[in-house]
Amino acid sequence: KKLEGLVTVTPPEEDKEAIGSDAKDDNSTVSITVVGASGDLAKKKIFPALFALYYEDCLPEHFTIFGYARSKMTDAELRNMVSRTLTCRIDKRENCDEKMEQFLKRCFYHSGQYDSQDNFMELNRKLKEHEGGRVSNRLFYLSIPPNIFVDAVKCASLSASSVNGWTRVIVEKPFGRDSESSAALTSSLKQYLEEEQIFRIDHYLGKELVENLSVLRFSNLMFQPLWSRNYIRNVQLIFSEDFGTEGRGGYFDHYGIIRDIMQNHLLQILALFAMETPVSLDAEDIRNEKVKVLRSMRPIRIDDVVVGQYKSHTRGGNSYPGYTDDKTVPKDSLTPTFAAAALFIDNARWDGVPFLMKAGKALHDRRAEIRVQFRHVPGNLYNRNFGTDLDRATNELVIRVQPDEAIYIKINNKVPGLGMRLDSSNLNLLYKARYSKEIPDAYERLLLDAIEGERRLFIRSDELDAAWSLFTPVLKELEEKKMIPEYYPYGSRGPVGAHYLAARYNVKWG
Ligand code: NDP
Ligand code: BG6
Fold first, then answer.
1. Is the ipTM reported for this complex over the cut 0.95?
2. 381 near 368, Cβ under 8 Å?
3. C-beta separation of 272 from 451 below 8 A
4. How far is it, in rounded angstroms, from Cα 403 to Cα 205?
5. pTM across the whole model
6. What is the CB < 6 Å shell around ligand 1?
């Protein structure tokens, strides 16, 4: 069943009903295998998300979860490991012990190699026992390092022929590290799977405020006419973390911040932000529009990119490590942990509008935001008469993806009183003040969509190709020229070069 109830405006109580009733199909079962179940992502995100879906009654009546990895573990040990990460996230006042126990009883473990067909066939036999002759649907979540994706897909797809329902595979990023390696990965995966069986995750697409972007744009008359170069001066896409690459240095050093955040998370947001109205809410219609944006983008010039790397810093008696202090990172690494870039879309709607991206680790704050700065009011009466600061006079729309999800608009208003003074204030939709319900984690939405066969929030292969075509040349150039990153202290605002870059386009970072 497609989740029409979730796509259209359905009151939350009805969501449960809509999903629950349809999923309660006695004849079918879903087996979810978390490949790499002993790993960080599985513990931190996947099992908790599955529990939250179970708690919300969103999983089908008949489902089984299998953990698969090389580590030796019994079912009991897996349950013990998983139970340590489950929380009553949905309703913190609740005691979920009973629900957790029921959930854990549905979790099992099978130990095996990622390239062993025999081990996967053993898993297949166990899955079949649990499926009990019902229509069997299989979801494999590849939560493993990318170099073993293809082996695992090959083995997992073997059992597909013995399954009378669907088989889908969720693949985690990174999807290659440039156009060539990404194309090679896609063609290897396609040896064993059809494109519609591959669910490439970009978890930013599952974030509430990113999903809301289209609603904001296409269901509010007040934004529609403003959404173009005629009224928008610049758009900023900002990702900032206040911690370093601790624990993931080995992975990170091979990729860097441009591949880790910009080429996927920020670029996906940009595509959703800038696309034309899709013909419908159908996944293919939306993804068609996103691809058009990506393919209309101007090649990124190296001069329009600033790279940085954090260095150690001592503050208030605490010392914070530099990127290369990580033992898994080479001492002479030039991998950027910060980058800023100016991008342009060469189409009629966005011609000349700078889309500025900024992404960094070990900065002074943690946030992800879309900031839209509007043009100045032509011949602004108040500027002429009162000499108001121009920055203040600029309207700005901010979509704060995290933390403290919010959408606010900066407007100019009169300070109350007998005089005439202008002030910049926020019209603020702060989610936690407006909605009492906890916002689902991105992985919950994405897992549910994969189970339901909803592809809207997953990356199609041509989108991926277009994203890599945009970033590969500039990444190659940066690497060939061995561009030295600008060093910035851990916990700072990042390299000053990012400000010069923005200033070149008359932009001040928000
Ligand atoms: P891990 O490094 O924790 O690996 C997951 C599991 O894979 C490990 O528990 C291990 O299981 C097995 N494994 C690890 N290295 C190897 C190897 N060299 N050869 C064979 N098996 C290996 O990864 P994460 O859980 O952090 O991430 C999983 C995937 O998700 C990766 O593709 C990652 O890039 C991506 N990702 C992770 C995020 C995160 O926050 N962690 C965020 C976004 C994406 P065992 O030894 O038991 O077989
Ligand atoms: C991942 C990146 O895709 O996203 C990490 O690999 C980053 O480096 C993470 O920390 C951020 O995700 P979130 O949801 O915590 O903002």
1. yes
2. no
3. no
4. 16
5. 0.93
6. 36, 38-42, 69-71, 114, 143-146, 148, 172-174, 251
